[in-house]
Amino acid sequence: MEKKSEGTLAIIWLALIQGVLASGAVEVKPSINPAAVGDTVTLSLSPSSTLKSGNWAMGESLILTWQGDKQLVAPSHSSRALFNVLTGALTLSSVTVADSGVYVVQCYDPKLRANASITILEPISNVSLKANQIDLMEFNSSAVIKCSVSSGSSLSFFWLNGSSEVTASDRVQLTDGNSTLTIVSVTRYDQGPFRCCVFNPVSNGTSDPVNFTISYGPDNMALTVNGQNTTSFLVGSNLTMLCSAQSSPPAQFQWAFRGQSVNTTGPLLELYSVTKDQSGPYSCLAFNNHTNMNRNITSHSPLSRSEQQAVTVWLLPLQLLMLVAHSVHR
């Protein structure tokens, strides 16, 4: 019985092809285009027409034929194709990606032929990121992040660093259709958060953020005495020296006086009721265990015996004696 139905469909199809004349008087207009998988799409005729007989097909694959109020639906579209005899519209339910293509309506009475193309896209789901590594070293590491989806078709990608869009540059590469982000020789400003945004005409999605831990420094050191870079002090004064450095993880600090290690660690060195013997160069060494880098800065602090004598304190970038560095490593 099924073979007989298919044969009848084929005969009707061939008869219509032979007898149909092309016409530009009628257009086919999809209700949604592109559409998402699972949508219902109606292909309407404009203007709508009462067609006595004809057929709908996708390319050369017959969907249905009708004669008056009688319809015959191809097995491939049974329960998914609905034809409106009064308007000539074809409705497809639960569409899939395979339903993308050119749809043609042909009628023998009156004679007309019209077509329209529709695209069915798979919605995007589960946008995720995978990084080659999270812990990086400034200037010595490269970051690679790959973006993927569980489902989706006709995808486009773009990246965000915080709220700013990431664009290609000498250090930044976007490859694999922009789905892979590579940052060469990362700096401390490449920590993130990085997000991947994926979209197609029917949906969009954004990944969870990825943040990098980037070790750097110490550098950009500063040393102040009593909160100032340049000042004068008297014998008997209390001095508070504060050492700072940009570093990740935070730097360790060691102090030295006249090249000799002082039994004080941390960024703060406090001296109370200083004497003339305590006048001289104070050095601060900053050390980062992750980068194995160290920097130092020195304050030369002479003191005066009387209030009439002004003593200037100034900061000089000097190389700290190897004795201090050696004591820090120990």
Write structural notes for this entry.
The chain is mostly beta strands and 330 residues long. It has three domains: 2-121, Immunoglobulin-like, CATH 2.60.40.10; 128-211, Immunoglobulins (Immunoglobulin-like, Sandwich); 216-329, Immunoglobulins (Immunoglobulin-like, Sandwich). It is 8% helix and 47% strand. It has two helices and 28 strands. It has helices at residues 2-19, 322-329; strands at residues 27-30, 35-36, 41-46, 53-58, 61-67, 70-73, 81-83, 90-92, 101-109, 111-118, 120-121, 128-131, 135-137, 143-148, 156-161, 164-165, 172-175, 180-183, 194-200, 203-206, 213-225, 239-248, 252-257, 260-265, 268-271, 280-288, 293-301, 314-316. The strands form seven sheets. It has a five-stranded antiparallel beta sheet, with helices on one face. The protein has a five-stranded antiparallel beta sheet with strand order 24-23-26-27-28, covered by helices on one side. A four-stranded antiparallel beta sheet has the order 1-3-8-7, with no helix packed on it. It starts with a helix and ends with a helix.
General form = rod-shaped
CATH superfamily of the largest domain: Immunoglobulins
CATH architecture grouping of the largest domain:
Sandwich
Major β-sheet profile: 5 strands, antiparallel
DSSP E strands, number: 28
Radius of gyration: 39 Å
What structural class is derived from the secondary structure elements? mainly beta
As a percent range, the share of strand residues is: over 45%
